[in-house]
């Protein structure tokens, strides 16, 4: 799997969704989705794009299992957090409040774990991170 390509393409999807929600809010005059809009852009677009650039700039071994866990954890975590947040705040299907809350929490937890794995990668593979 090409980590950089996967993360850049995924971040582009989130950039579009975030921009679409922002334009919808601006056109409709309501700010009800502002927290969701912000999280989609920050964790979906910016974080995934930053991770892609990290893998492009620094030669983290392609066979790194930590990197694999990080990339997939980031992908699943961003999806779970942002969709869970939307479900939690909009409650589109009455009666699923507990499910929505759990979905939101699990997505956020997976993303937090992915960030922790990134921290480990930065220190474990620190010899590859250099200005040289």
UniProtKB/TrEMBL annotation:
Transmembrane segments: 12-30, 36-55, 67-89, 101-123
Record keywords, A-Z: Membrane, Transmembrane, Transmembrane helix
Protein name: Cytochrome C and Quinol oxidase polypeptide I
């Amino acid at each position: 799997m090409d980590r950089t390509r996967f993360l850049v393409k995924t971040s582009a999807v989130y950039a579009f969704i975030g921009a679409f929600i922002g334009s919808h809010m601006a056109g409709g005059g309501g700010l009800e989705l502002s927290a969701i809009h912000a999280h989609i852009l920050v964790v979906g677009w910016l974080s995934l794009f930053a991770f892609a650039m990290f893998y492009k700039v620094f030669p983290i071994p392609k066979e790194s299992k930590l990197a694999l866990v990080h990339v997939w954890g980031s992908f699943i975590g961003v999806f779970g957090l942002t969709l869970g947040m939307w479900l939690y705040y909009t409650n589109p299907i009455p009666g699923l409040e507990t499910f929505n809350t759990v979905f939101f929490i699990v997505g956020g937890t997976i993303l937090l774990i992915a960030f922790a794995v990134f921290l480990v990668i930065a220190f474990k593979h620190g010899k590859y991170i250099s200005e040289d």
